[in-house]
């Protein structure tokens, strides 16, 4: 099963940049999107009903903000929305699809750059996410936790680590949560295959960073330890355009 994750920075915007043709050509088994930035009444049929896919959406209450989606060739056993905590769920950041062998949790994690209050919101969201995933594991299935985490874990994961020590997205307290995630048995799938490769998944529009490949790796597929025997490959598709992020992929074989 090939699972793709992509922050599209607006699903309507990316649909005008070849998104549908890309899906047709690439044929992911599951495609998890973040930051779709759309409301139900704005979702046209061409995006709601992709040929060969079941589609599911979680919308934020604020128009033009947040939102996540899953397109799946395989019909999930169940689909749920949110973490079960209204403080977080009204922003529309979480959608979970249960499959026969695992749970896929697709999340657009908050950005902490706006203020100290927003940073704390992000950290609280992180903790709530881990608790949520651990509850899923207790049901007897592994977890694939994918999405835009809005944090680069290690210095290798961003172009300029020295000048970003005090920037949200690379703060020690944010990175410590990713350490904690690994302590609970979750594996960064890309690093498992590419331990020393400097590859990024997000580049700022404001500084034309993509042209210089001055980016950050903030999009991940973490898997719980139960799924490690089924892990076959992971990659970052840096050549795919249409957003300030690019897709990241993982392949599991059951």
TrEMBL record:
Q: Which UniProt keywords apply?
A: Hydrolase, Magnesium, Manganese, Metal-binding
RNA-binding found in the keyword field? no
- Per its record, how is this protein called by name? Exodeoxyribonuclease-3
Q: Which molecular function GO terms apply here? A: DNA-(apurinic or apyrimidinic site) endonuclease activity; double-stranded DNA 3'-5' DNA exonuclease activity; metal ion binding; phosphoric diester hydrolase activity
Q: Which parts of the sequence are marked as the site Interaction with DNA substrate?
A: 245
> Looking at the keywords, is Secreted present?
no
Query: Which Pfam families does this UniProt record tie to the protein?
Result: Exo_endo_phos
Q: Which residues form a coiled coil?
A: none
Amino-acid positions noted as binding Mg(2+) in the UniProt annotation, renumbered to this chain? 7, 35, 148, 150, 244-245
Instruction: Paste the cofactor note.
Output: Probably binds two magnesium or manganese ions per subunit.
Record site: Important for catalytic activity: 219
In what residue span(s) does the Endonuclease/exonuclease/phosphatase domain sit?
Answer: 5-245
Which biological processes are named by the entry's GO terms? base-excision repair
The catalytic residues are 108, 148 (proton donor/acceptor), 245 (proton acceptor)
Name the InterPro entries on file.
AP_endonuc_1 (IPR004808), Endo/exonu/phosph_ase_sf (IPR036691), Endo/exonuclease/phosphatase (IPR005135)
